[in-house]
Amino acid sequence: xxxxxxxxxxxxxxxxxxxxxxxxxxxxxxxxxxxxxxxxxxxxxxxxxxxxxxxxxxxxxxxxxxxxxxxxxxxxxxxxxxxxxxxxxxxxxxxxxxxxxxxxxxxxxxxxxxxxxxxxxxxxxxxxxxxxxxxxxxxxxxxxxxxxxxxxxxxxxxxxxxxxxxxxxxxxxxxxxxxxxxxxxxxxxxxxxxxxxxxxxxxxxxxxxxxxxxxxxxxxxxxxxxxxxxxxxxxxxxxxxxxxxxxxxxxxxxxxxxxxxxxxxxxxxxxxxxxxxxxxxxxxxxxxxxxxxxxxxxxxxxxxxxxxxxxxxxxxxxxxxxxxxxxxxxxxxxxxxxxxxxxxxxxxxxxxxxxxxxxxxxxxxxxxxxxxxxxxxxxxxxxxxxxxxxxxxxxxxxxx
Length: 400
Prior knowledge:
By secondary structure, the protein is α+β, with helices and mostly antiparallel strands. The protein contains 13 helices and 12 strands.
């Protein structure tokens, strides 16, 4: 029986191999699509891991700082730091934008970190080259995915920064590489208006009678000065002391500071359940479409191969071959086609994954599930050809 299927495959090996390669390319695309989803989930988890935070304190009634906009006064971290169970609290800003380097635009997430010691929440946990930021202005640490090198200068808004350190796998939930700069510079980049807007705002303030009260000297100057300051951040990253529960510490912050607090589990649910949910549905639809197309191709080629040997099947029946043997031969050919296709697809996905701009994570369990899914698809696709073969009349072997 096995020899019968093998000899038939060798008889039309060209068509069989090329069909397997075509099917393999489809399977490779399917594995890459699954890897893209896994990569998106991993990017979200890496973002939370690299932040070094146990709690995220954000603006009340928001899902910030990654899923929604969040704005807090930058002096609130002192109040949070004084709460029971809080070991460290650090301000942080996040801004996704185009960063220029030698007339080349790179989309990156700009992260503003507070000055302090290495290991503070928000800081890149480790570097692959260079050093951490030591100055309060105009220094940057960039992820190697940006393509920047040590000593490069990058333009962020109106200022120019020198890359003093490189890190790896510091990305946003969208997979954009991160660029770390001092907090004050990041606040200016995110919240400070351009010069024309500032002049227009000052003109409106000067013309406002509410700020030109004769009995309140200096009020106008104070208002203008307040409009020129950048005292906002997107979140406060909190690290709790050993022995304290994140739920209890977060509940105290919510109660006394009137802010929104998320722990690791909640923030991961926001990133994966909300930010990635739509993309996951799209990828799921593509996977279903690719599975249907793959099943159609297998069914078509097996049906064609079976049609080409109708006379041979009739001869086998005339010689007394059981239907089970004929059905097994056709199913073995379908499974062999699936095995060849999966091997080609796995090799294609492995070599193609690093070429994608987004991170593609190929998980062995997905490959195992994909292999058995391919076998099931091939078995189901062969049923049409088996049904036709079992209807062949042995008399056709004589009448042909």
